[in-house]
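Hey, can you fold this one?
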Amino acid sequence: MGLVSTKRMILPVVDETFQEHFDDNTWASPQEQVVAGYPIFIQPSNSTAKFVYKHDLGVLLTDPVLLTVTCPMDAIDGTVSVACTISISDDDMTYTNHSGVFQLFAGDFRYIKVTLDFTTANNHYLVKAGPVRLRISLKHKRDAGSGTSDDMAPATVPFNKDFIDVRSITVTPAFNALYPVIAVYDFVDVPNPTSFDVYCFRSDTGVQVENDFSWAAEGV
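Sure. Predicted structure:
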């Protein structure tokens, strides 16, 4: 699972209007800025900048997963350093902070917060950064089994494995020597699904019948 939080950014910059930019530096024109040694319109730069991104996964991840943050950086002028903190929480109230890492192996969380701290020692220096990407490496799961449908009610099939999300289900009816059979499933796509329903019908008449079937599911 990959999440993109933003487009490209130029930083670290001073939060000010164009008028404030010239007034604060006592420049009467852009040419005076260039003469002062700041040829890029957004110079002088700030010494620090902070980027924060938070994401709600919608479900609690109980199994440990690998979180990876990437932020490509292209220098505009000089060098800008970046430090990453990955914070996780199960309630969006109390966060566990992991500082100085771009990768984290963790479980039992629903909310992820990524904080990037940019620093530079020279007010000339600028960098083009981003897009910031957060990748969550989820383990792919496969499940399978068999069952028997009912001729009046659906056959509820419980999953054998704990899924966060099911991406595909296939149901195959067992051969019936008396009449052709088709099998269909009914699945409500909710977080942490636990089961789905199966119906078998005669393909020549459409009547619901009792019949054996096999099934397979894939997800994370």
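The first helix runs from residue 18 to 24. Let me know if you want another pass with a different chain boundary.
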